[in-house]
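Posting here for the record, re: magnesium ion.
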Amino acid sequence: MEIGLIGLPQVGKTTLFNLLTGASYPTGILGETKVHTGSAPVPDARVDFLAALYRPQKVTYARVNFKDIPGVDLRGGEKGAAVRFFEEVRGADALCCVVRAFTAAGVPTYFDALLPLREFQELYAEILLADIMLVERRLERIRSGKKVSKQAAAEVALLERCLAALNEERPLTEVTRTPEEEALFAGYGFLSLKPLLLAVNVDEDGLKGGYPQQEALLRYATERGIPVVEVAARIEAEIAELPPEDRVEFLDNLGLQEPGIARLARAAYRALGLISFFTVGEDEVKAWTVREGTVAKRAAGKVHSDIERGFIRAEVFAFDDLRQLGSPAKLREAGLLRLEGKDYVVRDGDVIHFRFKV
Ligand SMILES: Nc1nc2c(ncn2[C@@H]2O[C@H](COP(=O)(O)OP(=O)(O)O)[C@@H](O)[C@H]2O)c(=O)[nH]1
Ligand SMILES: [Mg+2]
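Prediction output follows.
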């Protein structure tokens, strides 16, 4: 599960990537060509709560992978200039577009002024254009083929519907498809089919008092169902250098309860359709990642293949019930401890103990 970070050059993608993954790649490189990959913990207050309760030796958060690619430079002017940059994120499961809403004297701006909405619109247009080019290429290939099979005809009809949507500036998520068409879709790596989120990289002023185009940007994203996370990458990087006990105070001064990258990591996790269940004990409290809709037996397989094979029952309670009542014993008294079978659909926040025999 990987999120591709995309954006114009010098908007703070690598700074954000470093913050998320704990890496320390150089930032501020003009004409950057390197691609970085790494994984980021998904901060979760529920895990913290469980850790405080069970006092385990080890605490493990969920993780998501990020890929940081060179900034898309559109100033060459040729049509579809972004496509070659986007090739790096063809295989990503979701995209996070980073836009610049910070001022910094030494960092060249892409436009004459700070225009985060315009950045996003231009990038979004490039995403749609990249898909248009892909559809057109595929249509051409099918049409130039000699045999016209039934499947090819079905594919042409689908691709034409795609083209119509894209030309109306609608992403491919809005094209309705039958299950058969869904299968045809799978192999293409269309960009506008991927969940998209928007990270706005702000400075301290932006955090406290807003930034240019803020309202219009938020409206534009909301209208399209695109989640927005505002982060202050540079300041957060500075705060991350401080000893942990000082961090809270600095975040507090900025009016933040937690770092923006925590929100970003969680938004990415959600955009990927992922949920967490927890296992608890004296040795480890751990968040496990499954897709929404995963059944108990499959979830057990995440923990160990033996547990999936020898699955008997899942003992389940909801994290929120535990937080309310305070202890597993009280949950039992209240009848909130459930025994579930192999087809139980795991919910986000379930605390599970698997019973199995080998
Ligand atoms: N003042 C300020 N500078 C930032 C911020 N984020 C990134 N920068 C600086 O902007 C430059 C470009 O950052 P980088 O992460 O390399 O951007 P990328 O090209 O999008 O990967 C670097 O000099 C960063 O230190 C921010 O939030 N505030
Ligand atoms: Mg970079």
